[in-house]
Design a protein that fits this description.
385 residues, alpha/beta, nine-stranded mixed beta sheet, five-stranded parallel beta sheet, 35% helix, globular
Amino acid sequence: MKQIRLGMIGGGTGSFIGPIHRKAAGLDGRFILHAGAFSSDVNTSQDTGRELHLHPSRVYRSFQEMLQQEAALPVAQRIQAVAIVTPNHLHAEPAIMAMERGIHVILDKPMCVSLAEAQKLKTVADQTGCLLAVTHTYAGYPLVKEARHLVKSGKLGKIRKIYIEYPQGWLSTFLESSGQKQAAWRTDPQRAGKGGSIGDIGTHAAHLAEYVSGLKITHVCAALHTQVSGRLLDDDAAALLRFEQGASGVLIATQVAAGEENNLKIRLYGESGGLEWSHNEANSLQVKMLDQPLQIYRSGSSYLSRVARDNSRLPAGHPEGFIEALANVYNNFANAVDAKIHNSFDPAKDYDFPSVEDGLRSIAFIETMIASANAAEKWTKVVTR
């Protein structure tokens, strides 16, 4: 398989997520960066291009210029996929423009800022046949995939209860007033969209619950709070959840849990047993079977399922982390893009990356959480169209 020619929108010098995406995209040698419009500031974009050793002709002043000029190049030279790592409000327009030019898209989450935008992205993806991946990175961890495999295999029996929590503490103060770049745009409804904590980390939690359980969230009973005075978006969210097939759950997503880092955690219980995975111990999976001792599965081990082994790079005892998990999203996306390029794509195959459908469900989840929090009714149905 030849390397897939990649472009990037956003992620210029000083960016937090851009370098992480570039490392993840390059980790397995499946992508090679050919072009970029790295910043709305032309000088920053050009400086980033030089730092990345790109040819000056492939470093653009805007994403519009990049997508137009790349599409005009000979097929053997133009980019085949683009990573969009801008603030949320700048996701939909370049993604649509790229797909309309036959360029596959990988988007940082959440996919966009409104359900109308998400529906438009889904429509364009369907019409053009282009693939769109959303970087719900935590689904890339090998032991998350093992957890999903155990559920699908029926080992735990029918799923009854799902607890999912994502506590952070970095927004415990009015950090955005200090000019901190990440805090400033993530708490700005004009750039982040309608959801604060629920959009930034709550979507990760909801996606992980659905990914591992294989069940869709059907209804929520939500409460959203803004704990830091002066903040424009929620920084603390919680919800009771209803899933398909009668399972129930609880979700917590807060960015004001002082002292916490990024300890996303899922606990899931079926008729015959349960499991627990924590981001702080990402290379371990606790499996708790009824009337049996606690079992601890470890990444890189030969007893894991093939899907977990295929998403591992190191032997047991050698920790893998966030960049490797994101690289798994890129690698699995590359498999699908490569199949598209060579006309061997099978729509019935699970290529195992968060898709445009997952992105659409995340935006629907944000809007349903907000509607539920503002409603007098106890339960609000999740609607994607």
